[in-house]
């Protein structure tokens, strides 16, 4: 879709704002239509001090986040950049969680400063990693997702360990626009206004940077200074919004995309229309939520509801997106050879057995110290530890295999069950099972989880197929679906249903309630699916060569892709049942296997499986011992460990 005028973005803006006004007026009109207000009128007080400030806050926050995303996309020449994908919002959220625990007084007078420090640190970390690769889109988005997952995992750990103090933080973290006065709105407006004016001053230099580094420099533009100023403004806008209302990150990605799809091409037009579309999109979503407030829960977070609106919209428009800045899959450096594949795999097997033995026989004693398990206690303790260790190892192995299949199938080193939303699809399947079946057994949970994973995979590849599975289309589809699934779970969790509490704890990836029957079942499923992956290793060797070469060598492309996708979905669904959706192992294990010199599909699959099993087993061991007598879920621990490891790998390979 290509428009030469601004009729497209203006039409979208008018449509969003108009629908929002109609929905808001439906709730406001009956109050204003009263002939005369006499004495105390509760409805009028709510309208003036809650509803109107909330709608104004929606316009301000939507415009600020959209402008932030547009600035990121323009200056980094990256259509996937946004406060969410670059980790900015997650950094601000983590900083506020830490401030609430360590120094609550800071929240009273310096919440903006706390959010800004967190956003800045996260953005600096992401950009430092991107700098080593020339701010390539792939490295920036991967670094941003790594930082986001790490910040989110640490925030979840802190919330779970301090649930009594931070339980209400979940609703705020999902983006709640609820207001009790005009004070927050009037406080945010001048901050966002000044940042918007400063952004307007950068319009001409941003237009020149479209000429490229050399062209802009020849015209007197210092691109490094311009990039720093634009990024600083984008971080500032996102931090202000996160400080005021929590994380509403999807607007920063979808609003510039909509502006670009409907005809905004030049820098000035893109920033202007992105801001208006973002304001209209959040205003429309919040107006719809207010209209439904009497019929559902009025505490539902607007950020989650916005993702429910925005994700399908982005998926529908995804085939029309024509990006100038392709997200290319970068060719990795030659891996470090530490020996023959057989020797490497033998060392990996020995390491895996050592980790399993450590998890079974070493831990905290009754006095709180570290000690090996006494042989006299084997009969009492090992039946408690063994199911957890077996389930963790099997789940980590399955996630690693799923990640490797997806990376080789798509030719994208960033592909994994977590990043592409497949684990989120499994979560949605289990969520449906919990709310549809009173007490789903393991088989029913596995069926629902696998169905959810496969559904997400099918949608991703359906919407990305027209572009030949171009990485930016696949990533955008995965981000959109992950946001939509997270939104569904967030809405359920904020609804107050007691089943949502169970769901949130399950999502953290705890093996605490795993029984011997469940562990053996997961292990048997893992053996069957991993054996199937081994049988398909020839396809995994040939598909990265490209469809033409693979087809010429006898690979049935359609059936091969379908079977591999089904296998990846089944592996992800089965593993997610035990360790939750936020594990990170599916992204990390194939990278580590490649780092130790395993490049062919067969050895790399075995190596990734061993590494994935070791990582998840070690995560479970640390989770139940490091803060004894409390426990941290294995899925969260693996994310906390995995993010720094991936950051180090990215720096080494840059």
UniProtKB/TrEMBL annotation:
Any single GO BP term: siderophore-iron import into cell
Membrane-crossing residue ranges in chain numbering: 12-32, 52-72, 84-107, 113-131, 138-161, 229-258, 270-293, 299-321, 342-366, 386-407, 419-440, 446-465, 474-494, 514-536, 548-568, 574-593, 605-626, 632-650
Protein keywords: Cell membrane, Membrane, Transmembrane, Transmembrane helix, Transport
Molecular function, one GO term: transmembrane transporter activity
Matches recorded under Gene3D superfamilies: ABC transporter involved in vitamin B12 uptake, BtuC
Gene Ontology CC, one term: plasma membrane
Matching SUPFAM superfamilies: ABC transporter involved in vitamin B12 uptake, BtuC
InterPro entries assigned: ABC_BtuC-like, ABC_transptr_permease_BtuC
Topological type in the membrane: Multi-pass membrane protein
Subcellular location: Cell membrane
PANTHER family (UniProt xref): FE(3+) DICITRATE TRANSPORT SYSTEM PERMEASE PROTEIN FECD-RELATED, FERRIC ENTEROBACTIN TRANSPORT SYSTEM PERMEASE PROTEIN
Family the entry assigns: Belongs to the binding-protein-dependent transport system permease family. FecCD subfamily.
Name assigned to this protein: Fe3+-hydroxamate ABC transporter permease FhuB
Organism this protein belongs to: Allorhizobium taibaishanense
